[in-house]
Amino acid sequence: MFHRMRRSAVAALTSVVVAAGAVVALAAGGPASGAEGFYQPPAPLPAGRDGDVIRSEPVEYLDGGATATRIMYLSRNIRGEQIPVTGLLLVPDQPWTGRGPRPLVAYGSATVGAGDECALSRTMAGEGRPDSLSDQIGIFINPLLERGMAVVVTDYEGMGTPGEHTFMIREPQGYAVLDALRAAQRLRGTGLDPRGPVAITGYSQGAAAAASAAELAADHAPDLNLLGVYAGATPTDIAAVARQADRGYAGGVVGLAVLAANAAYPELEVTRALNSRGLEMLETIRDLCTMEIGGEYLFLDSRTVTRDGRSLADHLARAPYDRIAREQEIGHTAPAVPVLVEHPLTDDLVPYRLGRELASDWCEGGATVEFRTIHNLLPFLFSHVGATETAAGHSAEWLTGRFNGRPARSTCGSWF
């Protein structure tokens, strides 16, 4: 039985917005002992396909009710180079009683921080730093496990593995999600059908990863039997989110974005825009989890960390940094599978218009899109987080329909 962990809205906020036997070596590099050793990839990386498993090991899932396996697999960075990414596969004790073989869902995680010890494949197994509040992730994962669906969670690029976590960088987040599905299906001894049905879900940062994966799937992972994608409160425009988050309760998120942009676009020398306080912020955030970032940079005014006193959102609107924001935009490629896009009407972190525009753009591209407005009980402060549990329930219900062959509804043309 799954143990739902209930926290206060403030605790939930910092997690969501700001989100068998011995080690098995399945490729070159051999087994690694202990959690720290597991996250050190073999050098050089083994030759293989995107989604091939490098290594795996059994671990515990804190909420119980599922067999958990930590994995390291091959994926791609923004430059198209193969990189190691880690994650966690959960196969529930609960049988799947729906149509066909047990389905697999990739969960694009909400924001958990930047430090290696914040990686969900650690914290969901009772390792790493507890203040990452990874149990919040159970809000989305456990309803899927309870229905008999297997779930794979990616740590994204640079979370746990060497390098920086490329927070909100579109392509590597999408690749990490798609390749996690491949890795889970290729892992031995799980009982999953290697060609079985899969889907993707996510909220906030995880919705950006899910939506990116939806757009990239046809080219990057045409081998997957992808049946649907859920995206809740999707931050499709990082400049718009940076402007709304600035000087708010999630002010620290702009620091995460700068850290990621600096890693993904070294040629732009993003750090040139920062003053000494800004440079110190980057060094500090690099090792922090979400709760720590929230405490350290609550109500951060990004004008105080730039050399010219302009906000980071203003910098993203001007050359050369406007390229960063432009290349992370989502909505230019219509998914080939049905999608459910939801957004809280009074979202105080990710503007509601971004969800409507995403659905509209995909509709115009010919996708099957259902758009829903979430009317939550927290109309202003914390409304982004307040909608999470509602979104999780809708995600589980809608994905169940996709796996059972029910036709996907389209609202294209009926609500714009």
Automatic annotation (TrEMBL):
Residues 1-27 form the signal peptide. Keywords: Signal. InterPro entries: AB_hydrolase_fold, Lipase_secreted. SUPFAM superfamilies: alpha/beta-Hydrolases. This is Lipase family protein. It comes from Streptomyces boetiae. The lineage of its organism: Bacteria, Bacillati, Actinomycetota, Actinomycetes, Kitasatosporales.
